[in-house]
Specification:
heterodimer; A: alpha/beta; six-stranded mixed β-sheet; five-stranded parallel β-sheet; B: alpha/beta; six-stranded parallel β-sheet; 15 helices; 12 strands; globular
């Protein structure tokens, strides 16, 4: 079979045709039937690698479909594309950049891309030195007092990734010489700052200004506010800039211009996308929470998946399977939304994190060849901590009219490492974890099998409003436990899943032109709200109407 | 009376000296883990050491191992520090196996927190138990014991009280010199005394920080407070905070005792935090003087022990100072008349620590000199400034 690189879905594709016909054969088969026909279905459709198990047997697939999907991946040259990803090639073609987030987790002694590895580790080591100084209670503010609160100011990738991981690994918080708290501030309206600043002492608070471009208005406006807060308390002097700010950016000259001291500037590179940057010095709040060893474990877990992704054949390659199954649900079964449901409260921000990772990467409609796509690309990704969501939107999953695919995520073990935060109540908490696990398994069963998951007694004379259709597909991802290493694996799995789908859909997952324009238009409106410009006649009628109300109120 | 004393604390040494000097026959078993008859002590108090030598010669004091102790000993004194609790229980087990005719007088002078004496009593239940709080002051060991206005004794039993009074009659001849109370009350009293003293120190240090900001001389304030006879002058010197192993341990024990009762009280935790902050105060003054740029500077320090006349550096501010200065890339020239060996034992040889036998050698080529002498102000700022120094005191 001859294939062209960059072949688009609009062109004739034997793999697509094959899958379409397989779909037609399967479309009326319920998951109940698939399980009844094959008792070995779990063994056939699950993969274990290192600390992770992916069970995809509850998807509406059979072996021919998996074969067909792998065939599609081959037809799209996924193998070649993976090689391109793991190279310095500028695969983010609209911004003329490489996408080398994988390089951020190369071990120090890696022989693969040694020059880049060295660059990366120079910055990581500088970050580790700062972490060490803060943890040992020797990082001092302007007055010589020890820093006890660190506030990360960033938005998007400079916020969601560090926030999600810091929260997820809260049980791995390392003891420090003095109590240390890490906080996150992102919204441009200052909501989080106004809540936070009155609780903090300027003398003992350190700010991380985290912005890839160091020109993000949300971040810089928050940074300006805290600078004034510090100056009000500690006076106008260079000691404030020198001792209370760390900058993380690709732009040293902009950091210098703002006033960040040279030895407090941590660098990353254009070839790291914002939503792939938690592995770089953008992850400083993570390292501050879980320590240097913990951060290295996080990187090691992601690196393990990088290796797995590159070297494992597609039918047992976890990120490839996740990508292919997503495309199957989306493009063939017409399931347009995907719910992420962790059964572990620590993964509270995981769905929000994935929304950026998946939807900012693949929420696009122009192919690499400039043509419009003919099929649906990224589904709507949403989710919530499972046990809480059971009391909210699960009703719709079970009895609504939408088809939804789900990822259930759960750690097998929890409260097992005698961490000081929970050790005293471990026994009772372990029981609670078992309760959460049993709910996780119950929900995926009910979604898949509907009424069949109930006992025969219950089924007799069940009114229609109490019935469950089932047949909603889901994956279950089990981690041995949620630790820095396994979380590193989990995140990297989704990163590469996104890449796999971008190859199938022939789009560039590394740009985000759809979020640029709004900023420009905001710049047109700001002078009007600041009363620098009065003429609003150039705007549409709706905007004019709203502006009149806002301006009227402000004047009154 | 024949008295056996167990433990190697300063209190055990002082009791051995005092009891043997007043004519009791004392057998001192300092190391209960050893089967050999060799005494191991190295007190930081020269007076105690000299008197021990004297009593050994006089024959009233003998070093002994457990197996050689006579069986007709009238009273046993247990004085261990809080890390040696397991030794004590091993010791009590062995005593139980000896053919002693009970009851004997058993005096616990170890601070094992609340109910510490009761736990010991459970093993030798037939004996007459007493708790004597160890309120000895390092640097002033003998006087602090013999010149106490009243001796706190945890003991309510009349027969036992008589024995205690006989034992200590040479120092405390009057009935009113004894303050008897239940054992638990006495244990809590001991911790409360340490807590009160610590609170006074942290209080004056806290005020000193404020005084500095307001341009007030804390020395005036201190004198004024001391002139009020409800307050007095003890433990009201602002400085680099309190130290000492036992004192610090008492404060922590009391703080955790309070916390574990579920009472919402943060006073002692604050006292402790203020003190920890205060141990760095001279560093912060250097930091401010040099605008946070200490990299590559050389700083001399006089004083490493936690108070005068001792070589003990346990919980001394020197540790905080060294860590803070080293973290900024400073080289330290350190002088102390007694404690340099202990410093070297902990920190070993390093290029950013130069130990100086001579105090003036220490200030050669130094950018600044820090004085940590008994943790308080000792110079008159006006005089020192008039000599051409840039001088900064604590709170003045």
């Amino acid at each position: 079979m001859m294939t062209q690189p960059n072949q688009s879905l609009t062109q004739k594709s034997s793999a697509m045709e094959n899958l379409s016909s397989l779909k037609t054969q399967l479309i009326d088969t319920h998951l109940n039937t698939l399980f009844a026909e094959d008792t070995k279905r779990f063994n056939r459709f699950s993969v274990e690698y290192d600390q992770i198990v992916l069970d995809f047997s509850k998807h509406r697939i059979n072996q021919s479909i998996i074969n067909g999907l792998v065939e599609l991946a081959d037809e799209r040259n996924l193998g070649q594309w993976i090689q391109k990803l793991f190279s310095t090639e500028l695969i983010n073609y609209t911004e003329r950049r490489a996408a080398m987030h994988w390089a951020l987790r190369l071990p120090k002694d890696s022989s693969f891309q040694p020059e880049i590895t060295e660059q990366v580790h120079v910055q990581l080591d500088r970050m580790y030195a700062l972490v060490e100084k803060i943890h040992s209670g020797q990082y001092r503010g302007a007055t010589g007092e020890v820093i006890q609160d660190v506030v990360n100011i960033g938005v998007g990738g400079s916020d969601l990734g560090p926030l999600m991981v810091t929260h997820a690994l809260s049980d791995f918080k390392v003891p420090t010489a003095k109590p240390l708290a890490v906080h996150f501030v992102s919204t441009m309206d200052g909501s989080q700052l106004s809540e936070l600043l009155h609780q903090l002492r300027p003398e003992t608070t350190l700010f991380i200004i985290s912005s890839k471009s160091f020109s993000t208005i949300d971040t810089l406006s928050n940074a300006q506010t805290v600078r004034q807060w510090l100056e009000k308390a500690l006076g106008y002097n260079d000691k404030i800039l020198k001792n209370h700010f760390i900058g993380v950016s690709t732009k040293p000259e902009k950091m210098t211009e703002w006033g960040i001291a040279a030895d407090k500037q941590l660098l990353l590179w254009d070839w790291v996308g914002g939503r792939y940057s938690l592995w770089s010095c953008i992850g400083l709040p993570i390292a501050l929470t879980i320590g240097i060893q913990g951060f290295k474990q996080l990187l090691a877990g992601a690196h393990a998946i990088d290796q797995h992704f590159q070297t494992t054949s597609f039918e047992v390659n976890i990120p490839v399977l996740m990508g292919l199954l997503g495309a199957w649900n989306n493009n063939f079964l017409d399931i347009q939304t995907h719910a992420v449901l962790p059964y572990d409260g620590r993964l509270k921000y995981f769905a929000a994190y994935l929304q950026q990772l998946e939807m900012e990467s693949n929420g696009k409609s122009i192919q690499r060849d400039g043509e419009k796509v003919s099929l649906a690309t990224c589904p709507i990704v949403w989710g919530e901590v499972g046990p809480n969501a059971q009391h909210a939107f699960y009703q719709l999953l079970h009895q609504g009219t939408h088809k939804v695919s789900c990822d259930f995520i759960a750690p097998v073990k929890r409260y097992n490492s005698n961490q000081f935060t929970y050790a005293e109540n471990a026994d009772a908490l372990i029981e609670q974890h078992h309760l959460a696990l049993s709910n996780c398994l119950a929900q995926s069963r009910l979604l898949a099998f509907g009424n069949q998951a109930l006992s025969q007694d219950e089924l007799n004379e069940l009114p229609r409003y109490k019935q469950y259709e089932g047949n909603q597909p889901s994956s279950t991802i089990l981690l041995k436990e949620l630790n820095p290493y396994s979380l590193g694996m989990l995140i990297a799995m989704y990163e590469h899943k996104v890449f796999v789908q971008s190859v199938l859909w022939n789009i560039n997952p590394f740009d985000q032109w759809g979020v640029e324009k709004g900023k420009e238009i905001a710049n047109q409106l700001l002078p009007i709200l600041n009363h620098e410009i009065d003429d609003i006649s150039t705007f549409d009628a709706s905007t004019q109407g709203l502006l009149r109300i806002i301006l009227g109120k402000m004047n009154g | 009376m024949k008295i056996a004393i167990f433990g190697n604390t300063l209190y055990a040494g002082v009791m051995s000296v005092l009891l043997s000097e007043s004519g009791h026959q004392v057998f001192w078993c300092s190391d209960t883990q050893s089967n050999e008859n060799n005494l191991q002590y190295a007190f930081h108090d020269e007076n105690v050491n000299q008197l021990l030598e004297k009593q050994l010669k006089s024959g009233f004091l003998n070093y002994a191992v457990l197996s050689e102790l006579p069986l007709d000993i009238d009273g046993y004194v247990f004085s261990f520090n809080q890390t040696q609790e397991t030794f004590v229980f091993q010791l009590l087990g062995k005593l139980k196996q000896r053919n002693i005719i009970h009851p004997k007088l058993m005096i616990n002078a170890s601070t094992f927190g609340l109910h510490g004496t009761e736990k010991m009593q459970k093993i030798l239940a037939e004996d007459d138990w007493v708790y004597l709080p160890d309120t000895i002051q390092e640097g002033n060991a003998l006087q602090s014991l013999t010149q106490a206005k009243q001796l706190i004794v945890g003991c309510l039993d009349h027969r036992t009280q008589c024995k205690v009074k006989e034992l200590l009659r040479p120092f405390f001849p009057l009935e009113q010199q004894f303050l008897f109370m239940p054992i638990l009350d006495a244990e809590f009293t001991k911790l409360s005394i340490s807590g009160m003293l610590a609170t006074r120190i942290s209080y004056i240090n806290d005020l000193a920080v404020v005084a500095e900001k307001l341009g007030i001389d804390i020395a005036s304030v201190r004198q004024g407070m001391a002139a009020d006879n409800r307050i007095g002058s003890a433990y009201l010197s602002p400085g680099a905070g309190f130290g000492g192993e036992n004192f610090s341990h008492d404060v922590l024990t009391l703080a955790s005792t309070v916390a574990n009762t579920g009472v919402k009280s943060q006073l002692l935790a604050q006292v402790w935090d203020i003190n920890e902050q205060q141990k760095e105060i001279l560093f912060r003054k250097l930091w401010n003087y040099y605008h946070g740029d200490l990299q590559g500077k050389t700083i001399a320090i006089w004083g490493a022990s936690f108070k005068e006349n001792t070589s003990s550096i346990q919980q001394s501010p020197i540790h905080h100072m060294l860590k803070a200065l080293w973290a900024q890339g400073v080289t330290v020239h350190l002088h102390d008349p007694q404690a340099l060996d202990e410093i070297e034992m902990i920190y070993g040889q390093r290029s950013d620590l130069i130990l100086c036998q001579n105090q003036y050698e220490a200030v050669q080529n130094a950018h600044a000199l820090c004085l940590i002498l008994d943790g308080r102000n000792i110079y008159d700022p006006h005089y020192v400034k008039a000599q051409g120094f840039a001088y900064i005191g604590v709170g003045r």
